[in-house]
Amino acid sequence: MLTQYDALPAGLLEATAAQLSEVLPGPALIHLPGRRTPPLFVSVLLHGNEDTGWLAAQSVLKKYAAAELPRALSLFIGNVEAARSGLRRLDGQPDYNRVWPGSEEAHPAELAMMQQVVDAMRARGVFASIDIHNNTGLNPHYACVNRLDSTFLHLATLFSRIVVYFIRPRGVQSAAFAELCPAVTVECGKPGTPGSVEHAAAFMEACLHLSGFPQHPVASHDIDLFHTVATVKVPEQVSFGFAAPDVDIDFVPELDHFNFRELAHRDLLGRVRPGSGARLQALDEHGEDIGDRLFDYGKDEIKLRRPLMPAMLTRDERVIRQDCLCYLMERIAY
After folding, report:
1. CA distance 65 to 23
2. How buried is 95 (Cβ within 10 angstroms: 0-12 exposed, 13-18 middle, 19+ buried)?
3. How large is the average pLDDT for residues 131-145?
4. Buried (b) or exposed (e) across 4-27, using 16+ Cβ within 10 A?
5. Rounded to whole angstroms, how far apart are CA atoms 81 and 84?
6. Taking CA 284 as the corner, what is the angle to CA 280 and CA 288, rounded to the nearest 5 degrees?
7. Domains along the chain with CATH numbers
8. Residue 325, class by beta-carbon neighbours within 10 Å (0-12 exposed, 13-18 middle, 19+ buried)?
């Protein structure tokens, strides 16, 4: 399923995300030379509806079309079939950011492909890895790491002072590459948000110009560090909506405005239809459902039992079903 190139395929830099399937036969790993080695690894379009990463990579590559890249670059372009339809993933496809080495999912073809990408980059001695994403809710730009290592945090804070540390879900690209090099996921807000492509392109170019990473810790005043304590999902059998009183869980209409707000104890998230017994699922880092420790369902309302900060809350019902409702985080000292 993976095609590797040692030069840019003809027509690539003129193609939109939706047109990439006309240029590429499928997922592609493109190796380009540069002044420094080893290469920077960049992955884009692991979710087909998140095109900021591709537009940023396209912008940087056009800038250096007639010049040498500051550092060798290996660019992985992921789910081009879903991108053609403007979807996160097609029905029947796995999530391309859940099938990297370490995944708990059973998708042997995709797992083998991602292992092939990791093996190719291990052989090249990768310098650093950045995975560029969008999200569907109202979120600031922020970075995510899977290790609390100073090099990882220096890489993350090149993009944003807001950094999220997580070890679940499993099978994500950044966790697989954390075994090889400093690795980060960057979240660039909603697709089409003004300035998001420019921010991602500037970050990518800054990484291409890096000669190395500082060995000292990131200064505490330069980072707001959060730890993901739970992934919140709506169980498949539970119906839900927004300002929809006839469903099992009726979320407050302004739910996605709560992202990166430190919510207080007993803040209202939604209401449960009386008699339905509906509950949210909240999986901790070990896969244990801790929902009853985080949510209070008294008076058929859903309220927090303790202060927490949500991220990636969305009103996109398809995304909620395919992925999750949100992540809940707590601030940690650094």
Report:
1. 18
2. buried
3. 95
4. eeeeeeeebeebebeebbebbeeb
5. 5
6. 80
7. 3-222 (3.40.630.10), 228-331 (no CATH)
8. buried
Relative to beta strand 249-251, strand 240-242 is parallel
- Show the tokens assigned to 314: 């969305």
- Would you say 31 and 74 are in contact if contact means Cβ atoms under 8 Å apart? yes
Q: Cα separation of 5 and 274, whole Å?
A: 58
pLDDT digit string (tens) for 263-320?
A: 987 789 999 999 999 999 999 999 999 999 999 999 999 999 999 999 999 999 999 9
Which residue type does 241 have?
G
CB of 95 closer than 8 Å to CB of 324: no
72 by DSSP, 3-state: which? strand
Q: Residue 175: pLDDT band by 50, 70, 90 thresholds?
A: very high
Tell me the HSE value of 61 on the side-chain side, using a 13 A CA sphere.
Answer: 23
* pLDDT for position 137: 86
DSSP-assigned letter for residue 247: S
Reduced to 3 states (helix: H, G, I; strand: E, B; else coil), residue 152 is: helix
Residue pair 149/203 in contact by the 8 Å Cβ criterion? no
* Residue 216 confidence (pLDDT) above 80: yes
Helix (H) or strand (E) holding 234: none
Please say whether the beta carbons of 167 and 230 come within 8 A: no
Q: How many CB atoms lie within 10 A of CB 70?
A: 18
DSSP symbol at 222: G
The beta strands (E) that lie in the chain are given as: 3-5, 28-32, 34-44, 69-77, 128-133, 142-145, 162-165, 183-187, 224-233, 240-242, 249-251, 268-272, 281-283, 295-296, 301-304, 309-311, 326-331
d(CA 181, CA 161): 21
Q: Tell me the helices (H) and strands (E) count for the chain, helix number first.
A: 9, 17
